[in-house]
Amino acid sequence: MVELNSMEQLVINAMKELGATKDTSIKTADDIMKKCNRPKGMINNTLTSLVQKGIIKRVVREKASGYYII
Questions:
Q1: What does residue 68 show for φ and ψ, rounded to 5 degrees?
Q2: In this predicted model, what pLDDT tens digit does every residue of 19-60 receive, in sequence order?
Q3: What is the CA radius of gyration of the chain?
Q4: Which of 18, 21, 67, 69 has the highest CB neighbour count under 10 A?
């Protein structure tokens, strides 16, 4: 199991609460930011880190990228 820092854990918990657990229910960084009540830059950095660790997946879309837990 990969070690997560407190911010990564916060984002994962927010994604679970938002239901972003499969590719049919992806959430944007804005959705996650509102749920976490943290600055968008901090959320984006954390999402990038989680993608690199292989915990979440980024889906590129026309307007905004979406994320879900793998």
A1: -150, 155
A2: 999 989 999 999 999 999 999 999 999 999 999 999 999 999
A3: 11
A4: 67
Q: Residue 1 pLDDT > 70, yes or no?
A: no
Identity of the residue numbered 40? K
For the 6-69 domain, the top CATH level (class) is mainly alpha
Beta bridge partners of residue 67, listed in sequence order: 27, 58
The owner of tokens 């954390």 is 46
Domain boundaries, the chain: 6-69
CA–centroid distance for 29 within its chain: 7
Segments of 6-65 assigned E as strands: 27-28, 56-59
Q: Which amino acid would we find at residue 26?
A: I
Q: Rounded distance, CA 28 to CA 20, Å? A: 10
Q: Which two tokens stand for residue 37?
A: 């009540």
